Amino acid sequence: QLQLVESGGGLVQPGGSLRLSCAASGFTLHYYAIGWFRQAPGKEREGVSCISSSDDRTYYADSVKGRFTISRDNAKNTVYLQMNSLKPEDTAVYYCAADSMCSWGVDEYGYWGQGTQVTVSS
Asked: How large is the average pLDDT for residues 55-63?
């Protein structure tokens, strides 16, 4: 069974950091593009970052560029999202998703995790 599991969310003060993890079971993440998305209450799910399968090229939404970093650890079959300088507007449920290539389109991804809550508040 193919499964993605996110972890690492929590409550953090503005300016703080969190590292989210996306661990896979049942398939090898190295062969997939992995996207991170987020969804705040009352808003549509939006793309945050993506790492490609072929050359590990990375992509970031303008709202997180320079603050978030996506990376892979193939030995652990895990993709990470390092989030620094967090802002209250980063508060959302964060999801990872897998597919053949990076895209900002939610409908393009075939596999999704269950999400992890990130709350940025003082």
From this structure: 96
